[in-house]
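Render Dihydrofolate reductase in 3D.
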Amino acid sequence: MGSIGSEPVPLGGEITAQTQRKPRFLCLHGFRTSGAIMEKQVIGKWPRHVTSRLDLFFADAPFPAEGTSDVEGIFPPPYYEWFQFSKDFMDYRNFDECLAYIEDLIIKHGPFDGLMGFSQGAVLSAALPGLQARGLALTKVPKIKWVVIISGAVLPKPKVAQKAFGTKIECRSLHFLGEEDFLKIHGEKLLKSFVDPLVIYHPKGHTVPKLVDENSLETMDAFLSMIESDIAKTVNDSAEEKSPIVGCAVSV
C-alpha cells in the first residue's frame, strides 16, 4: 500500500497555500493484481501534469489470489483479489467481508474524496456509492462524492445490482471505455446508472490506458477541475464559519 502525490499543489484563485489540498482517492486494483501494480499502471501511463494534481492511495485487496494471475510474467507477485465469484459471476464469496475491509481502509487512511478502480476494483468503485446511499455499505465514513471507473461494469447478480443501481447514482463519475475491452458493453451499460457521467474513450483493451490525445486530456482536466472547485468551496465555506465576527465600537 502507498500514497502518491500527497504534497499540496496550488489551485490558483483566492485559495491560499495553507488551505490547498489535492483531490484524494482510494485506488482499488484489478483482480489478482495489487496496489503496487495499479500504482505502476497509473503513474507510469498518465502524464505528470495529471498525476501531480491527485493524492492517490493504492491499497491491496484483502485476499491472496486463489489462482493464476493474468499479469504473471509482466508484474511480480504478490497478487490479491477483492472477493471471489462463480464462473457465471452470479455467486460471490467474501463480498460482505470485502466491503467491510474497504470501509476499514477509509477509516484508517482517509478521508478520501472518492474512489478510483480498475477492473474488479472498478466494479466495486461503481457499486459502492449506491450501496452507501442505501445504508448497505460504508455507513461509518463520509459520503463518496467522486469515482473514476476504468474498465468497469454493473455487478451482474440481480439482487446485488438492484441494491447498488436501483436508482441513478448522483456522485460525479469519470469512466474509461476501451474499444477492444471485453467489458466495453458492460461499461456502456454502467453509464446509464450515473447522473451526467464523463467518459474517456480509448482504442485499447482491458487496461489502464495512456492519456495522450487532446480529447482525453480535456475530459480529465474538466473532471479534476470540478473536484478542485468543490474542495475550494468547501474550504472557503469552512473558513467563513470559523471566522470571528468583528464588531465596530460606536461612540454615542
